[in-house]
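Archive entry. Fields below.
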Amino acid sequence: MARMKFLCDTERCIECNGCVTACNNEHDVPESINRRHVVTLRDGTRGEKSMSVACMHCTDAPCAAVCPVDCFYTTPDGIVLHDKELCIGCGYCFYACPFGAPQFPEKGAFNARSKMDKCTFCAGGPLPDNSAAEYEQYGRNRIAEGKLPLCAEMCSTKALLAGDGNMVSDIYRKRIVNRGGRPDMWRWQTAYEFSDNKE
Amino acid sequence: MKNFTNRWLTRIEDEPVRRKGIDRRSFLRRSGVALGGGALLGMLPPTVVRRATAAEKQNTPQEDVTIEKRRSVCTHCSVGCGVIAEVQNGVWTGQEPDFESPLNLGAHCSKGASVRHHGLGSRRLKHPMKLENGSWKRLSWEQAIDEIGDKLLEIRETSGPDSIFWCGSSKASNEGSYLQRKFAAFWGSNNIDHQARICHSTTVAGVASTWGYGAMTNSYNDMHNSKAMLFVGSNAAEAHPVAMQHILRGKENGAVMIVVDPRYTRTAAHADIFGRLRPGTDVPFIYGLLWHIFKNGWEDKEYIDSRVWAMDDIKAEVENWPPEKVENVTGMSRDRVEEIARTMAENRPGTIVWCMGGTQHHIGNNITRIFCVLQLALGNIGKSGGGANIFRGHDNVQGATDVGPNSHTLPGYYGLSEGAWKHWARVWGVEYQWLRDRFDMSRKYDAGNGEMKYTMNIQGIPVSRWIDGVIESGENLSQQDNFRAVFFQGHACNSQTRGTEMKVALEKLEMVVISDPYPTHMSVMSDRQDGIYLLPTSTQFETYGSVTASNRSLQWREKILEPLYESKPDHVILYLLAKKLGFADELFKNIRIEGEEPLIEDILREINRGTWTIGYTGQSPERLKLQATHRGDFNTTTLLAEGGPCDGEYYGLPWPCWGNPEMKHPGTPILYDPSKPVSEGGLTFRARFGTERNGENLLAEGVYSQGSDIKDGYPEFTGDLLKKLGWWQELSAEEQGSAEGRNWKTDLSGGIQRVAIAHECAPFGNAKARCKVWEYPDPVPLHREPLYTPRYDLAQEYPTYQDRKAFWRLPTRYMSIQEDNHSLKYPLVFTSGRLVEYEGGGGETRSNVWLAKLQPEMFAEINPKDANNAGISHWQYIWLEGAEGGRIKVRAMVTPRVGPGVVWTPFHFGGWFQGKDLGDKYPDGTAPYVRGEACNTATTYGYDSVTQMQETKATLCRISPA
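PREDICTED_STRUCTURE:
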């Protein structure tokens, strides 16, 4: 059985927000939510790196571990989903998640958190596949149509990969080999400091 | 760096809530379902169950409704990403990646991934409107066309046809933009222009005058083959994101990536080598590279001897630029300059990429030419992996430049001479005399350089200067009267400089017509109370036609939706207006009209019949449609179809696609590449400048394209040359009739081109590229400091030009501005650029909720040193005042991305003016979600010495806490 994974190749990510927008488009998420977002480290200086982050569909998902109403479930492909009917909006999953994947639309009673929403790996939710009801609650179910998450399918530079973990790893491995270990591997520039910090 | 304020969130929430997200009512409803099923739902009072609004129902994917897939091309940048739209019952409900497209392979940036929002259209202009007594009134199309037409005719009667400024668009299709140019010609004026003026006009002029054509020589895909890539003033990661897919693949294939920019951009973050450049010092930088190249003998001597003229003149100028000089002027360390020179020399073929950073200067034509000279010195032009890869801006700026609304030429770069007009009169099927009489023939005007001409033969006032056409004194203009009205079809105004003066111009005009899907900044930035017309115009997704990507490939767009609300496509609006103005029959003589819509295919066929100069003749609608269907057959590095019905063709039949469609030329994927026969896409340098100069041979020596029957340089082909060569008999009788006394550009049968290519010769000749352009103000490219420079000392050493009296019909200032030391009051360099989420003037993208949420506020990037000097902390409001007094209120983004002494802003914002939010001035429901200051409210005077390009990349400002 395939085990679904995301991998964002930071050597290719250019922070274009294509993944973020593809997701917002495909699922019509509420305006205050971004299921996927791009994190940039060292913005504006040497060493700037960006990475697209959403739910990582952890094997041992901390969100599922802490949920007081047990609304999470993992599909046979390793996709972590939840049931919005059961969700009480307590926010524990948000505290537990290392990636900040769970989001809340702030539209509940008394402007409280309301039902948690997160990346579904484009696999919808517990409602019938590709039904209008499923779309309304969870967004589209591309996996049921034999497609992959739209964020990865539309990534401008093919930085974001999604699919069977083995296949994704293989693609990434080939890239590493092609790059000859650049930019981190030692070569004459690192050794001789010819590229000094003077610009 | 994303900061959300409550105020912004409120703006978004003012929109009708859509079915996504849970509000209290739908929560109750659903809990009812969970408890016991639909029966309970039926029992709840109707007010609790909120009905979906029409807008909400519209775009939800429907179960059990057939999905039609339609293919178009993204309407944002020039990469030309394929878009697959899923349409159900005429509603655009989904987007799928276009994996088969060889240009993007399914990829999109945020803008491409958001295009379905065009089908939602929440902030679109919905019906024609008119500003009357300060409020927007709805009109019918008939009323609008009537009133506008009457006013235009009245102005024509009293002030002549040159008193209207028509602004066309690089977002129109090839057919739409071509029609815009033709429309102006039939109206009787050259006062029509488009975004290319302020984008790559200096590129087209500089590059074409070097080797024949002014377009991108290779392609994005071809960069897989580069061994070095030099980006000067190009931030591809934000301006051409999907191009980065190809660039990074090239890097992974071993290319060294070099980025030279005033900012450490997102592109620089992927570079192997970064050099920080002071804005406006591109020419010294390149001379700095050439200094090392010539000193070390790294130049390609054989290439230069056979294919380049006047490199010795460049060598002479290089002597003026030793390393210490270059370091002083550019601010880049001499070690870095040497490193870059060595890298380019040791890693060939290498390519150079430039965008606005190189073009938007008053010496832009010098800069673009010296970029070309660098590549000629290294022998990189005409090779796969090499080239001058000029990344164009808008989705169809290439096409609109090629065949569309330019004030200095008719379609196809034929110019405005009598010969050019006669050529097009023949193609259009109208009498030259009739066309001539449409123009102001009352007297001749000052065409500059001491010549007097009729306005028919004088370059029109360009879009960079339209405001001066309004506010300059009438007697200083080389036309009868000032502009009294403007008609902007698909062009923003906040992308042009001098916003404070633009406001004055807008208030002086008698009528302003905006034909656009969105109201744009122009509708609100002035204090006009009357006389602004808004015509809802359809996007390219609501029509169909061809579009030309930056690599010269033409793609066919299918229609995805019917025009939303009451919008009409460009060509339909022009038809209605032409009818009102009385020249529709002539304008559409050879173009069928169906209802009120001119047939797009007929327009392309007319382009095919007339555009011989750049080979827009082979790309018929049929060939393009076939390629679109079989686009998956094309190799994604070479762009060559491998098998299938398009076998042997290049994707998009990149121009020049010689001869008529029956000849089935495959297109030219890499310009000036002699390694292939011309019939298979090979090419030589164009013989455009004569065969000799001062006794020196300008034709190629000993170099020719593969299989050429002439094994040396040769001039451009004429009927007479065919006779001399003994090839005249190869023309059919009909072709001979057409070719007699004509040349490869004016022979409408295409016979001259066909026979030349049958002998594997390029119809336009085989010459040397030239490093010295004797027609230009600086024949050898020189450095001149920006008009507003922070280095007044250097302005004495490298001064600008003298003021000119009549240049593109207008007085144009240079020295009278630079002679004062503006840096005393305005010490910081002010430059601007792009964000990945927005595009152009931003009226469209800031009205797209998915994009708007990513960039909610206008800001200025300020180096921590300058921020501390001014007492400014991160994200507070500041006033940024430009050197001519325009002020903008923006957030301060304190970041080391910009170097000390340089302030940078994005240019996409609009809807504010000097601190005031103009949101309430938009017609109801059309204000963009995100509004902010237009940076060009604070920019300044400065125009290129050949093309009137605006000097946006290097001016001055000062900042203070607000």
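CURATOR_NOTE: Residues 165-179 of chain A form the longest helix (15 residues).
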